[in-house]
Amino acid sequence: MTNVEILQQLAVPxxxxxxxxxxxxxxxxxxxxxxRTELESARTPNLDRLARQHSVGLATPxxxxxxxxxxxxxxxxxGYDAFRYPIGRGVLSAVGVGLDLQPADVATRVNFAxxxxxxxxxxxxxxxxxxxxxxxxxxxxxxxIEGVDxxxxxxxQHRAVIVWRGEGLSAAVSxxxxxxxxxxxLPARALEPGAQRMADIVNRFVAEANRLLAGExxxxxxxxxGFGRLPDIPKITDLYRLRAAVIAAYPMYRGLAKLVGMExxxxxxxxxxxxxxxxxxxxxxxYFFLHVKGTDAAGEDGDFARKAAVIEEVDGLLPELLAxxxxxxxxxxxxxxxxxxxxxxxxxxPVLLASRWARPNPWIExxxxxxxxxxxxxPIRSQDLMGLMLAHGLRLQKFGA
Length: 401
Ligand code: ZN
Prior knowledge:
This protein is an alpha/beta fold. It folds into two domains: about 5-85 and about 235-390, Alkaline Phosphatase, subunit A, CATH 3.40.720; about 90-230, Alpha-Beta Plaits, CATH 3.30.70. Helices cover about 30% and strands about 20% of the residues. The protein is built from 14 helices and 13 strands. The strands form two sheets. Strands 9-8-10-1-11-12-2-13 form an eight-stranded mixed β-sheet, sandwiched between helices. Strand 5 and strand 6 (about 160-165) form a beta hairpin. The two termini are about 20 Å apart. Bound molecules: zinc ion (ZN).
């Protein structure tokens, strides 16, 4: 039996509230002068008090040494073996923008890009505004290919998604994105014998798109990647008998959460808005997933101070969340994004588990990477947090007699 199957057998409904607050890319590395990470440098009296009174530890997102993308890292936080459920970018985007994906549909991520003399000069078309992408998507929606129903929808900035619906389609098609500038876009190729028709459809679509976009100053071509279908993933609502909701501003995270059975609640623009949404829905669900993107975005920009500032903003509003008295509150990241690396990394992530049943670790100073090593939660895998949340919410029966 897998861990998920064991938890599924033991899970019982209860009148407890569980909250998972993810600060994307929370983990960091010490700044060169201060010797403290972004989280340790941030002034966070609320997190520090919570950390001392409850449990902290370090969570390994997938397996030691592996740097995860945000999607598998979140699947782990929701309790899944992320390696078992690979999810393509196209599927994530489609679900994220609210497209109703059917099991036979194929979804593809689209980047608007700039091409000059047959080579890509900007893979993101100068990050055109979302409204511009929306206009271009409407234009591309006019492309008709026999036997396929094609939906094109803008996501954010230069990103969009295509859903292909029809008989005999395939997701076994290679990307057209060369992944670098100075190179020509690649033709879509069939990756297995039955996929040639799909590759032909994709190449025809791209040719038509190039014709329609030819007069555009920036977004004069499209790059396609991540052809995929909906994975057959069991929902946490069924597995653990929870009513679950997501409050996330970014489409990808909403999409991922909806894939595993969470209902979407309004997220607004700020963390304050997310908390208002949480308060309004507090009595309607048992499990809430809140997602904060600013920490990861600042880390990827190499902006140590901004990452710390995002953490401070969350800390400042934490009393509003605590006023709801969640039975279990987990605060962690999906992975580390150290500002010094300007990228996701493999480093384990500090995790804080607050519950009246948590074993306190009063000997630590606060919530940070160094203290997390000495925390009462110890080193864990992110995937194990779901079981710990259910347990602290008194939602798991005893195993065996
Ligand atoms: Zn992430």
